[in-house]
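in:
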């Protein structure tokens, strides 16, 4: 519902690591993110960045990012793609994929 307020957003549901997931595709995002709640279902390793950084949200809130889940499998219409997802607090979505991810994967 929040995505309808912003024209650069598209939402849909796809499989991520074999689990149906509500995803926001955000053309303004510089990185891809996953909610803290959703990562509990991951059975893959989490890596720590050598240096943490700030993530600015639409609501003008700055969040600290210091970890990443590498090579998460995103399944779209029978095709599998990999994404590196940074865990942050996401109240309305389980995953945010940046448009650079879409361009890189030609989706």
């Amino acid at each position: 519902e929040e995505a309808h307020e912003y024209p650069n957003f598209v939402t849909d549901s796809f499989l991520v690591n074999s689990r149906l997931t509500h995803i926001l595709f955000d053309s303004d995002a510089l990185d891809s993110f996953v909610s803290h709640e959703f990562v509990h279902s991951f059975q893959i390793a989490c890596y720590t960045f050598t240096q943490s950084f700030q993530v600015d949200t639409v609501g003008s809130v700055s969040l600290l990012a210091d970890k990443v889940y590498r090579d998460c499998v995103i399944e779209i219409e029978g095709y599998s793609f990999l994404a590196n997802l940074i865990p942050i607090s996401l109240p309305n979505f389980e995953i945010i994929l940046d448009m650079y991810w879409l361009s890189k994967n030609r989706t």
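note: The two ends are 23 Å apart (CA to CA).
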